[in-house]
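Internal tracking record. Fields below are filled automatically when a chain is submitted to the structure queue. Please do not edit lines marked as system-generated. If the sequence contains nonstandard residues, flag them in the REMARKS field before resubmitting.
Queue: standard
Priority: normal
Entity type: single polypeptide chain
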Amino acid sequence: MRLTLFDERWLPKSALCLRDYTPNKFLHDLIAGITVGLVALPLAMAFAIASGLTPQAGIYCAVVTGFIISALGGSATQIGGPTGAFVVVIAGIVAAHGVDGLFMCTVMAGLILVVMGLTGMGTAVKYIPRPIVIGFTNGIAILIASTQIKDFFGLQLEKVPGIFWLRVEALAKNFRSFSLEATLLAAGTVAIILLCRAFSNRVPGAIVALILGTAAVWIFKLPVETIGSRFHGIPSGMPHLHIPAFRTDLIHGLLGPALTVAMLGAIESLMSAVVSDRMSGDLSKSARHNSNVELVAQGIANVVSPMFGGLPATGAIARTATNIRAGAKTPVAGIIHALTLLSILLFASKLVSFVPMAVLAGILMVVSYNMGEWREIPSLLKLTKTDVSVWLVTFALTVFADLTVAVQAGMILASFLFISRVAATTTVSQVTDDYVEDGRVHILQDKDIPYYATIFRIHGPFLFGSTDKIDLVTENLHKLPPVVILRLRNMTALDATGLFALEEAARTLKASGRELILCGAREQPLKLFQQTEFAELVGSENICENVQDALGRAEEVFERLQPAGKAALK
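SYSTEM-GENERATED OUTPUT FOLLOWS
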């Protein structure tokens, strides 16, 4: 008997995808799984080392959580494992509460994620404005990069301070002790990754750099630190099950960090799932990720990970992108990625001992740059002073204070920002003859909508927390006519998150050969369009004063598109 729609909402994607699984899909998943498994190896070790733990802790985490997240998650192609977002938090927890405190915190965060998923709060992450998310990622990227300077340049520094400004001071004082060999290895690693990316996105630059760097150290006997010299190698064999000690005296002190880990895990995993949906190219409702199922799987993975000596885990955007580019079709690819890492543990752990620390530092430098979303900053600076100030405060608190404080302050700022934006949308005006006459060009009742155009409308403030509703425009992309009109007459306010959502919709429509026209935007949204690159993206001629002008513009667009033929639409 077929399950009802209600029951299917709680099924993992692996169960849904296996209904029509074929040998051809398995071949694609096999190649993708092995590829992303090899890519995950240096990243997992690097994240663990940067967090103040042993490299095998990262591999154990990638094996256990990678398997669980793919098997039980709500995304078809997402890869789970340790990520850079957790590095700073984990290092702080280990410094304050030890490894037992980290394991307790991970379990607590996992339980929070499970509750969030089961109570339908998988969509709650959307209530965090984009300037705050960018502030987090900018700050975390700076912090990760600062922790890698020692190994990147081979500095003779016994311990890197945990506080940012003390870390910078210590690195500056000891910079004369740099190693030329380590610096050349790390710089070469960065260069190889960038060259591989320029050549093809399918070439795993991190693996190429890892193999060449390790070979160079072994062949030329370079005097640089390796995983073997610092950690005495990687233990061979299966991860051992060990229930961590549960200390009630640590619960109070770990509540804040556990909430931070849970929020960061939810944010990154759901952002990664959205990226996965877009890269896969299927934006239909049935193919998109299930946020609540994904959070439940993330939570279970984080509860189990410490039992095998692993770190907190979440969806990994870079590995997910690699997985899709390598041809992954279903969650089976993620399961194979975990089994690939397990095979390395069982049969090739001795080889991992030769990996130079400078190579891992070079890889993490590239990761920190990529996760920083630096390209967003010029656009963000063109937004309102409120958005810019929120970004600056979040960024500064992340770098100079504490990520837990930054998360809490970010949520408070988000609340005040929401209240102020909604309050600003309230207006009082007198209805006059001129008011009625001016409104005639905006009404739809007396307008004929041609077959080559369709109209969507946004009603109310389009702010963070409501931006996912724009998915209605693109979820049935293949059914849309050549011209899509977005009526903004009743959109009372727009923020950075809403603008970003409109930009994504515009890019999706443009990539499919369709044209987006906007009409009737009020003063505040229109000003935001004009002071950012949005007008350039959609074309200033496609931002019309009213729906009457928009229909006229649609006719011009359709006449221009006709010679190219309908084959351009896809």
